[in-house]
Amino acid sequence: MSDLSTSIKQIKQMLIMQDAMNTRVSDSWRADNYEWYRAIWVECAEMLDHHGWKWWKHQECDVPQVQLELVDIFHFGLSLRLMKESNVDIIAEQLAAELQQSVEHTDFKLALEDLAAAAVSNKDFDGKSFTACMALMDMDLNELFRQYVGKNTLNFFRQDYGYKTGTYIKIWNGKEDNEVLADLVTSLDTTAEDFQSNVYKGLKAAYPK
């Protein structure tokens, strides 16, 4: 796990990126009052299928896909926190402290249900149960940061290259853009100040002409 100061720095950067992405979709996203909490519990249900829960049939846990779903949920969680507090420094400190908590759960399904329950009942993002979900999927904050920055940058890239107009190409030389992204981010230094811009440059270089 990252030390607290590094965690705060990473979370603050993700909050700024999330605000920018939401603004790209709608300048008035805060006033629009989207139901971010609903997006969280719907993603939780989808994630459970990737993890496996059916006792009447054999299922294998798809860890990379579950991690991807956790990254998506974090997008919604950050948005929810930004709706309730405008100061990113305050949110970053609060979230960093929550993500440093010790993990009580040993069963991923129960941790995920706590995360979903907080979204349904309290319309909130529960950092403690999210931390448990990450830990049980062998995911620390550094890995969350790496995958988050990658996915957020891909979302921007999609917007720049015609996602809304339907002209965007999703299959790049036989691979989905998500797969290209996964290969790209593992080859880059996540601690570099220009990590995000390097991801964008790498996507641009790989995009079919």
Using only CA atoms, what is the Rg?
17 Å
Question: Main sheet, how many strands, which sense, barrel?
Answer: 2 strands, antiparallel
Q: Order of SSEs, N→C? A: HHHHHHHHEEHH
Question: Per DSSP, what share of the residues sits in E-state strands of 2 or more residues?
Answer: under 5%
Distinct helical segment count? 10
Oligomer: single chain
Alpha-carbon distance between the two ends: 40 Å
Q: Structural class, judged by helices and strands?
A: mainly alpha
Give the number of DSSP strands: 2
Give an overview of the whole structure.
The chain is mostly helical. 68% of the residues lie in helices and 2% in strands. The protein contains ten helices and two strands. It has a two-stranded antiparallel ribbon. A hairpin with a 2-residue loop joins strand 1 and strand 2. Helix 6 (108-122) packs antiparallel against helix 7 (127-136) and helix 8 crosses helix 10. The longest helix is centred in the N-terminal third of the chain and has 22 residues, at 4-25. The radius of gyration is 17 Å and the shape is globular. The protein starts with a helix and ends with a helix. 31% of the residues are buried.
